[in-house]
Amino acid sequence: MARLNLLLSTSLVFVMILAGCSTRWQTAGDPTPVTYKQTDDALPRKTGKLRKLLLLPAALTSVDCPDTPPDQQIADRLDQGTTRYLQDWKDYDVVTTEDQNKNDFTAAVNFLGNWQEGEVGNGVQPPNPYMDSIQETAEHFNVDGFIVIHGKLQCLNAMDIALYFMIVGIPNWTKKLMGENLSAGIYEINEGTLVWKQEVNVMHPGVQGGGNPDDWAQFLFSDLEHAIPKVLID
Fold first, then answer.
1. Which distant-in-sequence residues (6+ apart) come within 8 Å of 119 by Cβ?
2. Does residue 152 contact residue 58 with C-beta atoms inside 8 Å?
3. Which residues contact 130 (CB under 8 A, 6 or more apart)?
4. How far is CA 150 from CA 46, 61, 132, 181, 187, in A?
5. Residue range 113-118: mean pLDDT, rounded
6. Long-range contacts made by residues 113-117, C-beta under 8 angstroms, separation at least 24?
7. pLDDT grade, residue 212 (50/70/90)?
8. pLDDT score of 122
9. What is the pLDDT at residue 103?
């Protein structure tokens, strides 16, 4: 059985690598920063204009994942990885909610996360009852926008995989496993509108051969354009 578990888990990882499931969207509009007024940047940018971002605490939910790390622990690692990746590789200035209670943002992040994972359009402002409090927090930190990370991660053991394969066949099996389960959205602070989003598939760290939350930020933000360099703004 142990050998079967290893074989099926390895096969799952291989198939997911081949699938490479992800979806990206960016506004056709022109986001407006608030932390600076002028720029000497010669490159056309959209999301990159929002160079200073508030990272709201990620909201993750695990399904059918016994004896795995707590959701909050996984979310904390993802937040840390996101901060490092955006600052070190994409030149954004990222601030966090610091010592504020993370539970204060859970309902808002879940609401926005579910919304951004649906169909969105150019410059859409979500019907969010939490937007006033988010914008107030963002204004406190003097940022151009804020980031919402949301995910629902399901654990599948070796027997689950075998049953999916035998009962529903490869096309439906892979579709069920490869659907995006983690999303990131960037919103401008002025209007609270969504300007960029990415959805990817990651494997829960509790699954044999599963993913590392510290590395998920690279999957989420690799296609995000670089921020305007600080030396080019006034």
1. none
2. no
3. 107, 108, 111, 112
4. 23, 9, 20, 8, 14
5. 89
6. 113/59, 113/148, 113/149, 113/150, 113/151, 113/183, 113/185, 114/150, 116/148, 116/150, 116/183, 116/185, 116/194, 116/197, 117/150, 117/180, 117/183, 117/199
7. confident
8. 58
9. 78
Confidence of residue 10 (pLDDT cuts 50, 70, 90): very low
pLDDT, tens only, 23-79: 888 888 889 899 998 778 778 889 999 999 999 999 999 887 777 778 889 999 999
Nearest to 127 by CA among 141, 140, 116: 116
Residue type, 60: L
